[in-house]
Design the sequence.
C-alpha cells in the first residue's frame, strides 16, 4: 500500500513538470509546509538540493520559519527514501529548481538620506511642513526642530528665520524644495553632489566672525 501511495505521489509530482518549485515543495507533503511556508523556503533556497542540505538552525534563522517547521523539513530530507524520490523526479525531468519568476525581489536600495537629520525652516512653494516631514521620514530621514552640527540638511523656504542663519554659520547643506525632492529619491550608491541652492532665501546681513582660540 505504501509503495502504491508513493507511486501515486510520484505520478502526481511528475505531472508538475515546468511548474514553480514552490508548488512541487508543497506537493511533497512535508509536515508543517503549506503553500505560504513553501514560498518562504523557495525564496531562501534556489533548489530542492540546496534546501535538503540546510540544517534546522539555518531554517529557523529564516523569518517566518519556526522550530517545528525546521524540524519537519530536515527530518523529511533525512530519510533516504525521500532523497531517492527527489532524484527520481529529477530523472523524470520535473523542475526542482527555482524558476526565474519565483526569484524574490531585489531589496530596494537604501535611501541616501536614511538616518540623516533634516531641519525645516520657512515656507516651501508646494509642500506644507507636515507634508515635507512625511516625505523625509518615508525615505528614512529624521526631522529635528533645531539646527546643530549634527544636522545634515536644512530645507529652507520663504521667510526662513534664525535657523537659516545658524545653518550658514555652521556650513550645513542647504536645500530648496526641488533639491529636497531630488535627494529623497537618490539611493545611497549615488554620489552626485547637490547643486547649490539658489532659490532658498539667503540672509545677506553680515555674520559675526567666530572668535579665534588664539585671540
Sequence:
Amino acid at each position: 500500500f505504501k509503495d502504491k501511495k508513493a507511486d501515486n505521489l510520484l505520478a502526481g509530482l511528475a505531472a508538475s513538470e515546468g511548474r514553480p518549485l514552490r508548488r512541487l515543495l508543497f506537493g511533497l507533503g512535508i509536515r508543517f509546509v503549506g503553500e505560504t511556508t513553501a514560498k518562504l523556503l523557495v525564496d531562501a533556497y534556489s533548489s530542492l538540493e540546496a534546501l535538503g542540505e540546510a540544517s534546522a538552525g539555518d531554517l529557523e534563522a529564516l523569518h517566518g520559519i519556526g522550530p517545528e517547521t525546521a524540524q519537519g523539513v530536515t527530518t523529511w530530507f533525512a530519510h533516504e527514501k525521500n532523497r531517492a524520490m527527489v532524484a527520481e523526479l529529477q530523472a523524470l525531468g520535473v523542475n526542482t529548481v527555482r524558476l526565474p519568476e519565483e526569484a524574490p525581489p531585489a531589496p530596494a536600495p537604501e535611501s541616501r538620506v536614511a538616518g540623516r537629520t533634516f531641519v525645516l525652516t520657512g515656507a516651501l512653494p508646494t509642500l506644507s511642513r507636515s507634508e515635507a516631514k512625511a516625505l523625509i521620514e518615508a525615505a528614512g530621514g529624521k526631522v529635528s526642530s533645531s539646527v546643530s552640527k549634527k544636522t545634515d540638511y536644512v530645507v529652507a523656504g520663504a521667510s526662513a528665520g534664525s535657523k537659516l542663519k545658524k545653518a550658514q554659520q555652521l556650513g550645513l547643506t542647504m536645500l530648496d524644495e526641488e533639491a529636497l525632492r531630488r535627494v529623497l529619491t537618490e539611493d545611497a550608491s549615488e554620489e552626485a553632489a547637490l547643486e547649490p541652492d539658489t532659490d532658498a532665501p539667503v540672509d545677506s546681513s553680515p555674520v559675526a566672525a567666530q572668535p579665534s582660540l588664539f585671540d
